[in-house]
Recover the amino acids of this structure.
């Protein structure tokens, strides 16, 4: 049991204190997972630049800690084993002054920490589960109002979902609560309360064992049957017309039902509870042995069971209203710990849809049946119960379940991989697809602005200001003549008319917009001469991630400072994966169409390795010399510039990549930056088709500054959400788990400004803790800071000697050393050139 409050437990998970106590409560697998999550959440807390959406987690029945209030002091009863052993359940008798003072953490803390890492401000909202859901809901919505919160999301497990229904109904105009996700909620009731009053529920075993003063009958008779919250959750007679549990005379001998008055009041409370509205999304559990109906007998009930429920709530009693529903297979008390439920909840709160869960229950769960069981059989099982060892044992199946803690698999590079490691992970694709769908309005606005030749209308004044100032810096750095100095003055003058200090102000129009568009267009044209020269330099710093043992490629990476490579977290998830990988530069076609073998550099995670799952990024140290003796300095690096304004929406982006982990290719100006979603402000969306294997590629502006880290394609999909294949069919995940047949229509990358913000906290932590690699991270940041002012292109030394067929090597003539940016660099580009229907700016008018 846990003698700590919620805050202390999270602290101890981070620090490692009281490990034995926490392991005993959570179990080894859950403890390890929670410990890592708590540490990651503490590190990530400063990184969220946008306002984080508030998410309240409402536990299920018996999932909130309850304390008796006496003389202003809170006396913990539920769950305090010592108090319960001494008959403390009496302190919770209906009518006593009781307050919710915490949360039973094992079923819910994993959800909270994962939501935090996903960028939400997650907080538990415990409540007195003895009360009617309507009463609890009215009290909780007042708390939200009193705190001045808006745009709140609710995640309600079990009874918490019923409470959320009342809370949402109290928010008539929808200003307080924007989305609600209910998980395993008994909207039409459950047989668990029936079994409690029938003395056959599994919670009565451990609770009766622990209580040394009250037996099971007394606990139900004097205390539990008086709780309106428990009584109201019996099956609705509308769904089970032959089972009238709210009528006292229906109950068989041997049961201890609530009083007639309590039943009438509970029936009214249940009927008055508002139904879920369009803000709701239901996650429903199936696949567990679940009582779905009961028949009255002389000595109790005969319970009919199938797998069509979560072990506590039958599927049909969970489904309510015309709202989106999703399904998983898992036990009721542990649903909030399931990885798919957590992923689905994050998606639903963030975007209103998810691919992480099934949209229909699996057929076998609906059809499979089990032998009936009687009250007498179940009562015998409660008498043979073991003593409770953990908090969740006291609540039985209300809060318990089998662990579903996925151990990080890592990008383990085996000698004979069973799948194509260059494939985008399904979870990454699903999340990107949902964010792309959510950014639809923004993308349409950008495309409309291009069509109408009003390129600034889709941007905010703040971003226009940042972009113009970035152009000004670049023009100043490149100015050696009167034209450049004149442009600088015009840019400064144009900025004077731009209003950026008033929140929510609209983009400039009229003469102000016309002046800005003309001056920005001239500045872009002035700098365009650098396009090809910088492209050739940038391409050298991009390499292919390969297995050291097999040479098989599985991703793209690029140098961001001397000796430091960046790629995706899903390409290199951990030190072990990095220690078995290399980066191969110049794996490409030569200018005379020769296929080069490239130069492989070993990755050295012992000197530096850091990865972040939310930002899907990883950085790792690289050996200074390749296996064949080539210096890493020959390939230069691409600075990470942390300031915003490197690109504006509607502009083309350029990508240097190793698609399908093959030879290097470059996509010039074929993709457009179409969205920078405010709700997921770490991502950027751009059009175009990139193949798996491009994961970890740099995404560039026309000035060849890195603006994003490419991490996923976005598939085409039907209106019902099914992914489409290149031949127009529906993608079959069983036949094509690596998504090779999927039709990719767009892309998602991680914004460089967010990566730099993250690396600043990483550098501070590493320096404070004395972690290896701190100085390398500091150099990455220093290189980026220098590039803010200088443009950041350091020309690599032209010393690389490519391995080539002997006859061709004898004929090759070295490039003059003074032409370091010339087109004699031996690199063939597979270029796809796209010309927008309407150019971003026109200087002819």
């Amino acid at each position: 049991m846990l003698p700590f409050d919620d805050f202390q437990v999270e602290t101890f998970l981070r620090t490692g204190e009281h490990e034995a106590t926490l392991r005993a409560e959570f179990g080894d697998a859950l403890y390890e997972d929670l410990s890592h999550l708590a540490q990651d959440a503490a590190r990530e807390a400063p990184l969220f630049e946008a306002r984080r959406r508030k998410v309240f987690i409402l536990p299920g029945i018996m999932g909130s800690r309850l304390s008796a209030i006496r003389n202003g002091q809170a006396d913990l009863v539920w769950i305090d084993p010592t108090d319960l052993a001494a008959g403390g359940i009496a302190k919770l008798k209906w009518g006593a002054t009781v307050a919710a003072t915490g949360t039973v953490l094992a079923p819910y803390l994993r959800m909270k920490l994962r939501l935090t890492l996903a960028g939400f401000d997650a907080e538990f909202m415990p409540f007195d589960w003895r009360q009617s859901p309507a009463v609890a809901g009215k009290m909780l919505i007042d708390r939200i109002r009193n705190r001045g919160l808006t745009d709140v999301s609710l995640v309600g497990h079990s009874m918490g979902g019923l409470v959320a229904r009342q809370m949402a109904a109290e928010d008539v105009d929808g200003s307080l609560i924007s989305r609600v996700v209910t998980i395993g909620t008994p909207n039409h009731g459950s047989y668990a309360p029936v079994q409690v009053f029938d003395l056959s529920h599994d919670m009565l075993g451990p609770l009766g064992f622990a209580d040394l003063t009250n037996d099971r009958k007394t606990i139900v008779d004097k205390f539990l049957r008086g709780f309106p919250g428990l009584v109201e959750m019996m099956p609705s007679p509308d769904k089970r017309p032959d089972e009238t549990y709210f009528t006292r005379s229906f109950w068989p001998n041997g049961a201890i039902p609530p009083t007639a008055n309590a039943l009438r009041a509970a029936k009214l409370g249940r009927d008055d509870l508002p139904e879920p509205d369009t803000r709701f999304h239901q996650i429903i559990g199936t696949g567990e042995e679940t009582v779905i109906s009961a028949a009255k007998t002389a000595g109790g009930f005969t319970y009919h069971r199938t797998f069509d429920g979560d072990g506590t709530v039958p599927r049909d009693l969970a489904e309510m209203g015309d709202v989106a529903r999703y399904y998983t297979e898992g036990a009721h008390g542990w649903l909030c710990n399931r990885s798919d439920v957590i992923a689905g909840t994050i998606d639903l709160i963030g975007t209103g849809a998810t691919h992480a869960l099934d949209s229909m229950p699996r057929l076998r769960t609906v059809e499979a049946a089990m032998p009936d069981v009687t009250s007498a059989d179940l009562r015998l099982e409660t008498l043979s119960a073991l003593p409770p060892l953990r908090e969740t044992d006291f609540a039985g199946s209300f809060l318990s379940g089998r662990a579903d803690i996925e151990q990080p698999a890592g990008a383990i590079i085996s000698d004979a991989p069973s799948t194509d490691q260059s494939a985008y992970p399904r979870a990454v694709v699903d999340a990107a697809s949902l964010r792309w769908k959510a950014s639809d309005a923004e993308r349409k606005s950008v495309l409309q602005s291009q069509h109408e030749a009003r390129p600034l209308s889709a941007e905010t004044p703040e971003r226009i200001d940042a972009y113009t100032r970035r152009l000004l810096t670049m023009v100043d750095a490149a100015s050696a003549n009167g034209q450049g100095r004149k442009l600088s003055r015009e840019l400064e003058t144009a900025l004077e008319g731009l209003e950026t200090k008033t929140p929510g102000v609209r983009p400039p129009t009229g003469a102000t917009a016309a002046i800005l568009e003309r001056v920005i267009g001239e500045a872009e044209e002035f700098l365009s001469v650098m396009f090809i020269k910088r492209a050739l330099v940038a391409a050298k710093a991009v390499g292919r991630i390969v297995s050291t043992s097999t040479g098989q490629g599985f991703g793209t990476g690029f140098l961001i400072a001397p000796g430091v490579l960046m790629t995706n977290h899903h390409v290199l998830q951990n030190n072990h994966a990095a220690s078995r990988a290399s980066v191969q530069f110049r794996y490409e076609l030569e200018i005379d169409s020769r296929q080069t073998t490239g130069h492989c550099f070993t990755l050295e995670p012992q000197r530096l390795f850091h990865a972040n799952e939310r930002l899907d990024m990883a950085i790792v140290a690289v050996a200074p010399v390749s296996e064949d003796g080539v210096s890493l300095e020959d390939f230069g690096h691409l600075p990470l510039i942390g300031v915003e304004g490197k690109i504006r929406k509607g502009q083309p982006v350029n990508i240097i990549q190793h698609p399908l982990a093959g030879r290097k290719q470059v996509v010039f100006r074929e993709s457009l930056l179409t969205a920078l979603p405010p709700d997921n402000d770490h991502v950027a969306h751009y059009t175009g088709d990139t193949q798996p294997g491009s994961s970890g590629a740099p995404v560039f502006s026309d000035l060849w500054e890195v603006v994003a880290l490419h991490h996923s394609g976005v598939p085409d999909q039907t209106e019902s959400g099914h992914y489409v294949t290149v031949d127009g069919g529906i993608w079959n995940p069983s036949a094509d788990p690596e998504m090779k047949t999927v039709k990719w229509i767009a892309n998602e990358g991680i914004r460089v400004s967010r990566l730099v913000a993250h690396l600043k906290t990483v550098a501070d932590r590493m320096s404070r803790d004395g972690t290896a690699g701190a100085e390398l991270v500091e150099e990455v940041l220093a290189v980026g800071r220098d590039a803010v002012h200088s443009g950041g292109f350091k020309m690599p030394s032209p010393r690389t000697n490519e391995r080539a067929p002997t006859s061709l090597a004898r004929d090759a003539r070295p490039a003059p050393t003074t032409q370091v940016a010339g087109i004699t660099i031996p690199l063939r580009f597979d270029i796809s050139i796209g010309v927008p229907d309407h150019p971003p700016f026109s200087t002819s008018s």
